[in-house]
Amino acid sequence: MEGQLSTGQTQAGDQSQFGGSHMIPATDRLSRLPYWLLAALLLAVLAFWTFTTNDNYQVIFSAVRQGVWTTIYVSLIAYVLAMLLGLVWVLMRVSQSRLLQEISSFFVEIVRGIPMLVLLYFISFVGAPALVSGINWIGGPLIERGIVNPINIRQVDFTVRAVLALSIGYSAFISEIFRAGIESIEKEQKEAAQTEGASYWQVMRYILLPQAVRNVLPALGNEFIAMLKDSALVSVLGVQDITQLGKVYSASTFKFFETYSVVAMLYLVMTLGLAMFIRWVEQRLEFK
Known about the structure:
Layout: H1 2-19, H2 23-32, H3 35-53, H4 55-64, H5 66-93, H6 98-112, H7 116-138, H8 140-144, H9 158-183, H10 187-195, H11 200-215, H12 217-230, H13 242-253, H14 256-286
């Protein structure tokens, strides 16, 4: 009798183990989810339900959705230009020329110490007019002969000025990211390549830069997320992005809570989606 009971208990225990094995991983995953993520998912579901069932939110979304494309292309263009400028600054800073090193260091340290909003105003209202004056001065002989017309500062759109300011500001931070990636690579690789007869620029192009970009890819992705959020600053120039359209709509309807809830949700969706994409790219690179 005892043998039958022990056997039955063993079988029951085996059934409970094997029968519940499909539930254990699911419960483990749920138990490991952070509470903030569960709260964020709950908030997202609630916000989605509210936005899709409330006519006021649908009207607000229709009013500001055009600014989504402005925010995206301003961020994309500014980030690409910032990457190129940052690459130029870091190549100057790690070059063998003392003059280039000092010029790059001066620019990076000065720009990193200026708030982005102040830099936006400075580039838009001081830098852009100075650049236009410089172009007109260089093309002075052609302007005097009537071959070309002088450029008026009013012809330079504020969106262009905003993109220029974001590009210059973020190029300083991106150059430091590139520099950290280059310095993380063993010096033996550079020395071995130079021993084989490779020039400095060949070593930089074919050995150091490819590895550096791969090492700092997560940091570059974080900078793009930061630029996407900082693109809201261009609204101070009247650029018709999400923030500016939301500000105009709320000022005319006094629906501040509803309007800025929609604006915040749009930014949150874009930044979280971009963060998930960056993590996916990181995971793909880990398997290569």
